[in-house]
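Protocol step 4 of 6: record predicted structures for both targets in the notebook before any analysis. Target 1:
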Amino acid sequence: MSSDIISKLKELDDLPALPQTAKKVIDILNKPDFSFAELVSVISKDMNITASILKLANSALYSPKSEIRNLTQAITFLGATNIKNLVIALSTKTLFENFKASLLIQKVWEHSVAVAIYSRIVALKISNKISEEVFLIGMLHDLGIIIMNQYIKNYEEMISEIYGTEESLYEKEKELFDITHAEVGAKLVELWNLPGIYSDAIKYHHSSEDSKYKEYTKIVEYSDLVLSKNNMNIVSFTDENRIEQLRNEFGIDVETSDEIDEMFNEVYQYEKELFKL
C-alpha cells in the first residue's frame, strides 16, 4: 500500500461533515432552554427524515399504545434524546448514498441497521437505560469501512478475498494498512463533535475490553458477532467463544437468546424497508 494513501487515512482531514439536519438538531438540543417548536420546525423541513421518524415511532421497535400521527407527538412519545439519535442515524443514510454505489456499501448499510436493531433489543433485555445509545452506535459502528473504500484501491476486492474464510477484517486491515475501519469511524464521529461515548465504542467495537464504556461497547460487539454468525455481515469471521462469553456476562440464557432472535427477525423485516438505500 502506497505511503501517500496511508498518510491520507491517518491524517483524516477530508472526511464528510455531519449532515445539516442532524447538526441543527444537536445544536438545538444543546441549548438548556430549547423548544419543541424549534425542534419540530427543523426536522419537518426534511420530509424523508420526518416520514421515517413517524414510521419508526409507530413500529414494533417502539410499540406505541396508540397511533403517532405527527412529529410533535413523535417527539413527545420518543423523547428528545431518542429523536436526536434517530435523526443522526437516518442522516447517515445520505452518506452511504453519496459514496460510490456498490454491493459493499449496500451490505455495510444493511449490516449497520441490523446491528443497531439487535443491539437495542439486547439492551432492552439487560439494561433498558442504554438502549437508545447502543442503537446509534450500531448504526455508526462501520462507517469507517465506506471511508476506507473511498481511499484505498482494491479495498472491496480485499474484503471479497477474505469472505468465506476465518480471517477478521479488523485484523487484516491492521496487517495491510496499519489502520482499521474502527479507528477511521471513531475519528469521523469525533469530527462531528458527538459525545465521547460514540467515538470510543466505535473504536473498540472489535476489542470492547479496551473501551471506557464497556457496558455499551460489549452489546454492540456481541450483536456484531451474532449477526456475522448468522451471515448478516460483509465478512464471514465470527468468534463463537466470545459470543458465549458475552452471553454469560449479560446473563442471557437460551430462552432469552431465542426471544431476542425472534424479536429481531420480526422487527428487522419491517425496519429494513424503512432504512432501505
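Target 2:
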Amino acid sequence: MTPAAVDPTCLEPRLSTVRAAEGTISELWDCLGVQTRAATGNLVALTERMHLKKVEGALAGLQGRYVGRQIIGVLEGSDDTVEVQVSLVPQEGGRYVERLVLHASEDQLRGAILPLLRPATLNYIWWAAERRPGGPLLTELTELADKVICDSLTLDIRPGRHYALADLGWPRLSGWREALAQLFDRPEGIQQLPGLQALRLTYAGQNPLPAQLYGAWVADTLGWPDLGGVTVESEDCERENGDLCRVELYGGGAHFVLEAGEGGVIHAQAEWAGGGFQSSLHLRRLPLAAGLAELLADARPHTAFERAWARVRSEPRWTVDLPTVR
C-alpha cells in the first residue's frame, strides 16, 4: 500500500530519453524523499505490445523481490528517437522498483538497453515475445546476462558458459514432476524402477516441447541411455496448449499412470504383480508471476533442466529447423 504522505505526482510515469533516464529516475526518488535504494538486479523483458500488460502484471507479482530495476523493451519498428517511460512502481512494504519502458525496434534496443542497466549487479534477460529474434539483440544481451529466461527449445538458445539458462516451461511442469515422484514413495513402487523401459506422454494442442522436456527429464532421472523408449503424442484433453494430459510409465510387468482430471486434479494408478494402488492429488499450477519468481530466486544453472534440455535437442525425432542463438 502506498503511504498517504506520498505525492501522487511522484508515481506518475515521465517521458525521458536514454541519455536522460538516469537523471529522471533520480528526480523521482527525490520527489518521494527516499534516501536509500535497494541495489538489486536488472531484469530486461523483451515483448510485443499485445503482451505488454501480461508482462507488466507478472513483474508486478514479484513485489520488488530479486530485481530493483525492470526494463521492458516493446518490440515495434520506429524511426523516431527512442523515448523511455520512467516510473517508480510501489510494492508491498513501502518499497518501490524502477520501471523503464521503451518502444523501439530490435536495432534501436541494441544501443538503448546497455546504458540503462544498473552496474555491478545481476542481469536477468527474459525473452517474453512470441516472435523469434531476427537480429543480434538477444545474442548481445546474453553476453551481459547471469540468467536467460525464454522458451529455450523454440528459440534454440543453448546453455552458456557465463549464464544460466531457464525456461518458464520448467516450473510449469513442476506439479507433474512431483506427482510422478510420489508414485514411488512406497517401497513396493521403488522396487519396480529397474524394470521400467517405456514412457508414453500425451499433451494438449500443438506444442510438444513441454512434454518432450518432461520425457527427457524422466529418462535422465531413470538413467536411460537415450530417448528411444519415450513416445510423445497430441491428444484432445481440453487443457491449455502444451499442457500434459497423460503419463504412462511401464515395463517389467509394472504400469504407472498419471492422468489430468477436472479441477486441477491428477488421478494416479499403479499396478504390478501382486500389488498396486490408486490415488488422486491436486496439481500445483504456478501463475506466470510465481513461475518467474521461482526462476529468479537462484541465478545458478539448474542441472536437471539443462540435462533434459540437452537430451531433447539431441533426439533426432524431435529435431526441428530453428534459428540458433549462440
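Step 5 preliminary note on target 2. The chain has two domains: 8-145, 172-282. Residues 172-282 form one domain.
Proceed to step 6 after PI sign-off.
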